[in-house]
Design a protein that fits this description.
Order of helices and strands: EEEHEEHEHHHHHEHEHEEHH
Number of strands: 10
Helix content: 40-55%
Distance between the termini: 34 Å
Structural class: alpha/beta
Strand content: 25-35%
Number of helices: 11
Length: 235
């Protein structure tokens, strides 16, 4: 579904990603893990079109994604839930969700999607008329994920969904991501610092360090790798 080959990207003259290649098959849950500054968020910004790469190719369902304007990529079925949530604070919960459904598929499937979103995150139903800026951090993260799901994506990209959250709330969000995938077989690409949870949930993982992929494999292989156990799992 998503094929990233030899991507290099950065900010002005400062390179961040260097010759990164990642593959995500339809229906897969893929995690990209690594320390702060490794380039994980830069990777997502390059896929969604916020950043233009200096080298490499990105193909989505066989299409050259770099030839598609950033404003059209959501309509192809790519939903980017950014780091830091970025909900619209002066709009209500429902208004935020409705904005997520601006894609053609999102408008067509609104009734089904909103029922699923409010079932997955019941607190959003309770807060539906509340301004998003008054929600807790965990509730805002649920809203950001719900807004992404409202677009009827084929690929859901989640950037650090556990950042700044209490462990119990982060665990709940990971559980709901597993439930989303069980219900829909949605393809998910996750960037996350909680390495143990990210690898346990995923089918396949990549380790990004200093802008390069240094290791990849299925979840069992990565979790049993001595380098991962020592550097990220505290073993």
């Amino acid at each position: 579904m998503l094929e990233i080959a030899g991507i290099s990207a950065g900010y002005s003259s400062v390179p961040v990603l260097r010759d990164v290649s990642i593959s995500v098959d339809e229906g897969q849950f893929v995690s990209v893990v690594g320390p702060n500054g490794a380039g994980k968020s830069t990777l997502f910004k390059t896929i969604s079109g916020i950043l233009k790469p200096t080298a490499g190719t990105i193909r989505f369902e066989g299409n050259d994604l770099l030839g598609v304007p950033p404003s059209r990529r959501a309509h192809l079925g790519i939903a980017h839930v950014p780091e830091g949530r970025h909900v619209f604070p002066s709009l209500t919960v429902m208004e935020n969700l409705e904005l997520g459904a601006y894609t053609e598929a999102g408008r067509q499937n609104w009734a089904t999607n909103i029922e699923r979103i409010l079932t997955l995150f019941p607190v959003l139903s309770e807060r539906r008329r509340q301004f998003a800026g008054t929600l807790s951090g965990g509730e805002q993260q649920m809203l950001a994920i719900g807004r992404g799901l409202a677009s009827s994506p084929k690929l859901l990209m989640l950037d650090e969904p556990s950042m700044g959250l209490a462990p119990a709330i982060a665990d709940f969000i990971f559980d709901q991501l597993t439930e989303i995938r069980r219900q829909t077989r949605l393809t998910i690409l996750l960037v996350e610092q909680r390495v143990a949870e990210a690898l346990q949930t995923a089918d396949h993982g990549y380790v990004l360090e200093a802008g390069r992929v240094v290791l990849e494999g299925d979840n069992n292989a990565l979790r049993s790798d001595d380098r991962i156990r020592a550097a990220y799992l505290g073993m």
